[in-house]
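Lab notebook, bench 4. Still working through the backlog of constructs that have no structural model yet. Next entry is a single chain of 326 residues. Request: give me the structure tokens for it.
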Amino acid sequence: MGMTLLWLGVAWDGQWHVDVGPDTFFTAPHLMFYAGSGLIGLTSLAVVLTTTRRGETPGDRIVHIAPFRAPVAFLVSGLGAAGHLIYGATDLWWHTVYGFDILELTPSHIGLQLAMQTESAGVVLALLSLREQPAGRWGLAGAGALFMASAEISFDGEVLGIPVSLLGVGGATAWVIGIVVGAGLSRRWLTATGAAFLLLLGATLVFPPFATRVYADAIDLRLRDNAVNESIVGTALPYYLPVIFVCAAGAVWMARRRDLTPRQAMLLVGAVAAPAVAVQSALFGRSAEGTPLLPLLLTVAAGAGLCWFGWQNAALLRAPQPEAAR
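Model written out:
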């Protein structure tokens, strides 16, 4: 719930910047995503305090911090939420000093985006620890979808002519595949993750433009004459990710039939799934000009490495399940 509020609030805020323009700190989109971040932070704090009080149980992955005992997943999500609040305070200072935001990419906004990605990763790991319950497995599918969507806006721009978004979304996709497979879940949960992304895509396409129009009318502001009137965040998301997840489910099935090791399977699936994001890069004109080969090679390497890394993350958090490890 917290991550969903955070994501839709951020998508709404981006829409507001484009369709309306002037933006102060105390706006409804800001309050919505800070409420989501606060919910994540309070949940993480409650779990840490509860774990500290009851003590460790076998199978827990606990980090000791002074008198506190923090499950790894909730430590990550809590640190992300804390970072979000710190950068939120920085954003308030920025608005106080410089007034309205003219550009979306301010230092405080970049910090908020990276904090959101950290929170999202923590939520994925937290729901991974609840995978034994049906609600936990569905939550993991939804959190995986949110993590990939967040990567689309957290990693933007180019570094040395290489589109960071290409590496970010491709790597996030590979990591989520590795997490789901490494959790020992059946391959249908890869398909479920793709379906969850499809639902998230629909919500992101509909909610931000609708909320922007309603909110602007409510506070007597007019949309710009050149308002896009379509979801700028939703249209930037990779539509075909559900197809990639169906293909990944098939690839995992084939790998098991051919008795590939987990490392071989994850390196292979990640090396193919991540560069598939380059299709969207080409469709939306984000390919690096003049050097398409270098971004492609980097995406293949990042995808293979992060898919295996995701499998390892899941393996570290789960109880020993030798048969499910494949």
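Notes after review: Confidence is low (pLDDT under 50) at residues 321-326. The chain has eleven helices and four strands. Flag for follow-up if needed.
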